[in-house]
Amino acid sequence: MDEKNDRGARILILAAGLAGMSGVMAAAASSHGGESRNLAALAAICLAHGPVLLALGLLGRGKLLRIAGLFLAGGTLVFAADLGVREWMGQGLFPGAAPLGGGVMILGWLTIAVAGAWGLKQSN
Fold first, then answer.
1. The whole model's pTM is what?
2. Region of residue 92 (left: phi > 0; alpha: psi -120 to 50; beta: else)
3. What are phi and psi of 60, to 5 degrees?
4. Are 111 and 71 in contact (CB under 8 A)?
5. How far apart are CA 78 and CA 115, in angstroms?
6. Potential cystine with 108: which of 4, 44, 64, 72 (Cβ 3.0-4.6 Å)?
7. Per-residue b/e over 88-107, b at no fewer than 16 CB within 10 Å?
8. Taking a C-beta distance cutoff of 8 angstroms, is the pair 54, 15 a contact?
9. For the chain, what is the total number of helices (H) and then of strands (E)?
10. Is pLDDT at 122 greater than 80 in this prediction?
11. Separation CA 102–CA 88 (nearest Å)
12. Cβ(47)–Cβ(80) under 8 Å?
């Protein structure tokens, strides 16, 4: 693996660890501190995307999957940060942060689908 791919993999693995950690912390805070829609959503998003980021960091081959992982990591970061700031500071990260982060996550998942379709097309 060349240095550029290694750096991309390390970024995705780092993002996976941070997402997983944040998801567990948000789930614990939500269960011990009463019901909070923000914390529940934060936990769900982070715990859903953390394993995917780890898989893409460890096993993702090809430019499209690396790009998809970076979209997922960036979108998760913005979305989760907005929910956390909203929960603990009473206001969002910036106007439109959650929809922006969500849109970038959707773009990441779409890129994974395109990578799958492209790969199948290439193998036939």
1. 0.87
2. beta
3. -60, 120
4. yes
5. 24
6. 72
7. eeeeebeeebbebbbebbeb
8. no
9. 4, 0
10. no
11. 20
12. no
Distance of CA 53 to the CA centre of its chain: 7
**pLDDT exceeds cutoff 90 at 32:** no
With pLDDT > 90 as the criterion, what percentage of the chain qualifies? 74
Chain position carrying tokens 């998801």: 23
> Radius of gyration of the chain from Cα atoms?
16
Is residue 26 within 8 Å of 42, Cβ to Cβ? yes
- Choose between 31 and 42: higher pLDDT: 42
Tokens in use for 51? 């394993």
Closest CA to 85 of 47, 50, 53, 42: 42
Assess whether pLDDT exceeds 90 at residue 74.
yes
